[in-house]
Amino acid sequence: MFDPHPTYVIIAVMEPTYKNPQIDALLSEIVFNGKDRVTCIKLGICMTCDDAHDIIATSFRDDVSRKEYAISAMCQSCQDDVFGVSDLEPDEDPWDNQWADDDALGSAGMGTDEYYF
Asked: What are the sequence ranges of the domains in the chain?
């Protein structure tokens, strides 16, 4: 039977920022024990811990944190450990809806590439 109200599932892969490949390779080898920053971001995992998986744009508190993930591949928890947490953080998640990941990426200037229906 035809469903007039299809269910949409959005999967938005976050894109890593560009770094010189030699710098990326050096960081991976020396600092992160062989973990590749670009691969971590595309797989949605954290570069610095083994706890964070399935990271998407709504996994982060704000645009600055989303952009930092694209730079460093650090999850929100690791970013909080490194940079601290502001007392001015909102208690509510402004991205709490079905289009949240798309909105979050768009507001961070990243856009989304694919939709899966």
From this structure: 21-86+94-105
